[in-house]
User: Fold these one by one.
Assistant:
Number 1:
Amino acid sequence: KKIDKKPPEADQNGMVQKEETVEISIPAGVENGMQLKVSGKGNAAPGNGINGDLLVVISVEEHPDLVRDSSNNLHYDKYISFSEAVLGTSTEIPTVSGKVKIKLESGTQSGKTLRLKGKGVPSVEGYRTGDLLVHINVWTPQDLTKEEKQFFEKRFDAENFIPSPKKSDKSFFDKVKE
């Protein structure tokens, strides 16, 4: 094939290099490093050949509070005060679709994990959605005033302040096994 008229910016094959913006649909649940293929949107082939494919490599931005695991579950560390653990509280938890309010019962123990079903990340295949696991951490105060310190000293040997786990309470190792 002979090229009679070629633009001044064309190469020896008569091809002009240009950029094109391509709109793609990214499915829910994609993971970091996944590739999406857009057929026919890659480099043009010389001599009226078939255009190549555009490969898009996904880079997922991390959420400031939620951590994703390999099973599409999200994890969130919720820190509560000693008073909130003793008395119970209502609190807001961030999710991928907005905030939800949860209620923590009085006597909530540090290390308790709450499961919010279906509040995780959907799978790419679309057959299930992960859960949001809220890990409760009771924050122990480090700098007490004199009055606060006296309050706890008076209750140092009080029956309600002595640890007495029930058989139904799981140890750290039982939780790791699960």
Note: The chain has a mean pLDDT of 86.
Number 2:
Amino acid sequence: LSRDHLARTFWPDKYENMPEFARKSLNVELSHIRKTLRDQAGVRSDFLVFEKNTYRLKLDRLPESDVLTFKALHQRIQEYIRSGQEAPDELLQDAIKTYTGNFLDDFPADTFGWVEIERQHLSAVFEQIADLYSNQLCAKKDFWKAIAVCNEILSRDSRMEVIHRRAMQCYANLGMAHKVEAQYTLCCKMMDQEFQSKPSAETARLYEQIKKVA
């Protein structure tokens, strides 16, 4: 990537008015990056090379990150699904454990559009995996394990209404009406805090159906 492209991407206003200051800011930040990876990751070689007015990464091994690991696990899960097989529990568990939170959650969403796009994509993938795994456990009538998985999923992202419903269904199958009530109340609070709205019609309908037979 060219130096000007990076400077323009990260400091658009400064680059437009004072491009030389944007380039200096880039140099400072890249210096911090080099020092941080050298001190904290033990990277000794010059992995960030500047040639012909462009920067490139010079790595002696493939980079590792939770995002790359999560995407690789999702790809393996998709391969099982496409072949008509059930994804192994261990594979699904690894994917859920790898997703420790929303992508760059402390990063302002309105600063760079690609951050929000990637955040939403990874969140959707996580919800898909969470729904698949909890559903598999329910289908096997392993309700206690399904509840534990639901709680672990919600600790990563409490906004997944489908997982609140799955937990309610599990508690209902175990005859624990009070837990269904508590889960629905928790879901209502989450919807109010996060979206200033009530649970979806599907969630409310499920709750009413469980109450009738409880």
Note: The chain has a mean pLDDT of 91.
